Amino acid sequence: MKNHEKSIDPASQKMLDKAYAEGIQTVWDRLEAQQPHCGFGELGLCCRHCNMGPCRIDPFGNGPKLGVCGANADTIASRQLVRMIAAGAAAHSDHGRDIVLAFRAAAEHGEGDYKFKDEKKLLALASEFNIPTEGRTIQEIALDVSDIALDEYGMRGQKLQFTKRAPKVRQDLWTSLGVDPRGIDREVVECMHRTTMGVDTDYVNLTLQGIRTSLSDGWGGSMWATELSDVLFGTPEVVKGWSNLGVLSDKEVNIVVHGHEPTLSDIIVFAARDPELLKKAKEKGAEGINICGMCCTGNEILMRHGVPIAGNFLQQELAIITGAVEAMIVDVQCIMPSLPTVANCFHTKVISTSPKAVFPGATHVPFDEKNAMETAKQIISIAIDNYPNRNQGRVNIPSDRMGYMAGFSVETILGALGGTLDPLLDAIKSGSIRGIAGIVGCNNPKVRQDHNHIALAKELIKNNVLVVETGCAAIASAKAGLLLPEAADMAGEGLAAVCRALGVPPVLHMGSCVDNSRVLVVAAAIANALGVDISDLPLAAAAPEWMSEKAVAIGTYAVSSGIYTVLNSPPPVLGSSNLTNLLTAGAEGVVGAVFAVEADPVKQAGLIIEHIEKKRTALGL
Ligand code: SF4
Ligand code: MSK
């Protein structure tokens, strides 16, 4: 495959050319080396859950139809799906736990490096949870909030607080199905229990546990991550900044922060302004310190501070290949194990910071939340010391960069609408906006980078569907200029008029992967305002280039919350026609929504528009 066929992004194409010329292996080369992928794996028909196996089911020939224990294709495929959901939910929710712990530390040691930047939001949460606030300090109130949060990780059976944000009819549906999450950690543990050899074998029962676990992510761990990150680091407001590899500087110390958690990246942004560090950078011959983001930790600081974003998932290796990155600081999730190897071809230092994610070949500087600012400065110092090692002769920073407008938290959206959802509801009722679609998720080298994200978003806005985005999808749109108010020119007449009146783009960046919880909050608020269920809304979701288990958890909580969700490729379930039918058809009668699978982004848009029009008709719009 030619380099320009691997990505639609000109900056990525240029770095792929450089990688090829210099013999540096990238994710695309490794994908090629894996061909053909194992057919049993693709269909979800291999099992390694016990030592009588590994077993595989032969769906077409005369080979075995049962594993050694007797598990059939339905059992094997559904157990795998449930484990994927559990892993994705665990990743989001454990991230959420770290935020809760940082939040609690800020409450306990009010003078630490973490402060409550949004006390108003903290008080709103306290009121939502009926926590008394009169005559109490903000720290006392925060401790009570953190008690509730921590309790929800291993709680004793009460409802998750945030599920009460969903319409009553949806809450009642979850209760009647027996899928109310009983604790964020508990659901993940139960998934692992039920999928070991000889426990749950019924694909419907297993899928219901997958649903319950995904809800504990979307309305639990992810929502805690979002809400308390907003309290700690500030609720995003409208910000402007720059995106793509062109944000790297040829004269400054470039530091790329990559991963997911804002606890370190947010502090890094402030630490980089330290006059002593700036002085040191100048002494080393640099003009300054340039902090850039990558993937979702990048999205966190983009949303709150307008920090430049160097790229999305498939650009992590390419950023290093520019030859201009002094340090890539990583925390957790979506970090390719290949980074230290690529960095070895240059002067770049990969600095790992989490005890949960150690990378052979990287420099490990454990991030100490109690001394967050000190650790951040120490890491920045390592990058500055590395600047003189940059070989300017090998530096090749693509000039491609694009502006963005972001920061669309629920609060920002409400603010832009004048404090109430009414103008948005009126626009939907009048048909100027036909509906809303959330485009989320990753890149995947199996798909031309950003192609599906951009083609889908363009087709939707052209048809007057407002698009909200998170994660790497949002970064793709930033690079393509869809996050600029001028992108309204690409929208249909109705949507364009609304965007121009409000001064916002037709594609709204709502944050990182855990911030899909913001999409749930908006969906619930609209449904509540209209007095209907989320599944009644002209609303849909898509993950058109997904790769992570986290995307499976997100898709499952979207569908379980009543949101029709389109994927470009299925998770490994096709080996079980029963499970496939349940996910793509049967779920409609259970949770009021299904998954659809369609590779072509224009056809994906067609499916979404058809769904939106069907819902509009049913609502009498
Ligand atoms: Fe094989 Fe059953 Fe063991 Fe899986 S659990 S490896 S299907 S014997
Ligand atoms: S970073 S989960 S590649 S969206 Fe959240 Fe991007 Fe997917 Fe990671």
UniProtKB/TrEMBL annotation:
GO terms for biological process: generation of precursor metabolites and energy; response to hydrogen peroxide. Pfam families: Prismane. It comes from the Bacteria. Keywords: 4Fe-4S, Iron, Iron-sulfur, Metal-binding, Nickel, Oxidoreductase. GO terms for molecular function: 4 iron, 4 sulfur cluster binding; anaerobic carbon-monoxide dehydrogenase activity; hydroxylamine reductase activity; nickel cation binding; peroxidase activity. Homodimer. This is anaerobic carbon-monoxide dehydrogenase. The lineage of its organism: Bacteria, Bacillati, Bacillota, Clostridia, Lachnospirales.
